[in-house]
Amino acid sequence: MAGRYTIISRTGYQGYKPAYDIRQTGEDKHKTGQDKRQTGQDNDQDRQDEGQGGEGKDQGGEDTELAVDTRCGVWTFKPDILQPCANIWSFTLIYSLAALLTSTLTSYINSQVTTLERQFGLNSKQTGLILAANDVGFLICVLFVSYSAPKLHLPRSLGVATITFGVSGLACSLPHFIFGARTDTGQLQTNVTSSRTLYGAMCDGQNQTFNKCGSAEDKESHMTSENTAIISLVIIFLGMMIQGFGKAPRTAFTVTYIDNNTKKTNTGIFIGIIISLGIFGPALAFLLGGVFTRMYVTLEDTKLTTSHPNWIGAWWLGYVVFGCLALTVSVPLFCFPRKLPQKDSGQQISQKLEK
Q: How far apart are CA 9 and CA 15, in angstroms?
């Protein structure tokens, strides 16, 4: 019996011990699962914290980028000394001067029509073609330029447009530097349009400068001057067309930039200032055009007077002066940012950057 009880006891002991181990193991696994869930929750919390930290970094990066984008300067050169100019008043002042010069260049050709006819022997049809070239260039690109306004850096685009005006002015003066000025013979010349029709049929017997009427040298000289007139006409026409390209973005870009950087109630004030100053352009063009016309084309002393039919004024001088001034005024426009800083947003950005 004792041996049997021992077996039973051993069997019970042996059977009981594994049951206890199983319960103990289950409790350990349960605790381990709780620990894993707790660890998972901790990891989720860490990831959330990292996500919030990343969002904070991204937001800080956006704020920094916004702060840089609203600073005056060119590319990466944006010193603090230029930042007081990052306001709508400075932009209005600079572009008002640009509008004045561009408007002057547009109207300057009207004050030199007679001089160009004398210089190159142009007729009314040809001078009318030159006057229309500006509008031709304007109509070609005005729709495309207006459509692309929201996608471009408007101050820099206006700077490029002003440069285009300056280049067009210098281009229109090229015939003078390429072919030179008509020399003073001291003799009265007939109207060039009539001379083309009656050349060789009517001669000036008192003119001792040339050989006999209808000679080969005279005909060759006449053909040379006619070719010069055609080439000069093409150069001036292209210069005026380039001017039309520069005129296309002025109104659309200016109104868009001012409207985006000031209160809606103040937009009309700043646009009115720019337009008001630009109105003086034609008056300045005719005023200085009259001054340049009273200077001889070579800027040298001559026996002729301004009332002489052979007098040719310095028509090219206005293009050079106004073209150079337009190139100079265009430089500050490249310094204005895409978006002018606002007072409230500037304070908020500075506070976030300090944090």
A: 9
Q: Which of 240, 276, 282 is nearest to 103 (CA)?
A: 282
Task: Give how far Cα 153 sits from Cα of 77, 150, 257, Å.
Answer: 17, 8, 9
With contact defined as beta carbons under 8 Å apart, do 123 and 193 qualify? yes
Which two structure tokens, joined as six digits, stand for 355?
């944090």
The Cβ-side half-sphere exposure at 76, using a 13 Å CA radius, reads 0
Residue whose C-alpha is closest to residue 111's, from 310, 322, 298: 322
220 Cβ contact partners less than 8 Å away, ≥ 6 residues apart? none
Q: What is the mean pLDDT of the chain?
A: 77
Q: How many helices (H) and strands (E) does the chain have?
A: 12, 0
**What is the pTM for the complete model shown?**
0.69
Q: What would the pLDDT profile of 55-79 be if each residue is shown by its tens digit?
A: 444 444 444 444 447 888 888 888 8
Q: For residue 191, give both structure tokens.
A: 């109207």
pLDDT band at 115 (very low <50, low <70, confident <90, very high): very high
**Residue 29 tokens, joined:** 């696994």
Looking at this protein, which amino acid is placed at residue 236? I
Note the pLDDT tens digit of each residue in 225-253.
788 899 999 999 999 999 999 999 998 89
* ∠ Cα 299 194 215 (to 5°): 85
Q: How far apart are the first and last CA of the chain?
A: 86
What does the block give as tokens for 190?
A: 């007939």
Residue 230's Cα: distance from chain center in Å? 32
Backbone CA torsion sign across 163, 71, 152, 96: negative
Kind and range of the H or E element at 137?
helix 124-147
The 10s digit of each residue's pLDDT in 158-179 is: 999 999 999 999 999 999 999 8
Nearest to 74 by CA among 62, 88, 85, 59: 85
On whether the CB atoms of residues 309 and 186 are closer than 8 A, the answer is no
Query: Rounded to whole angstroms, what are the CA distances from 18 to 14, 21, 25, 106, 289?
Result: 7, 5, 10, 105, 115
Closest CA to 316 of 166, 184, 179, 175: 175
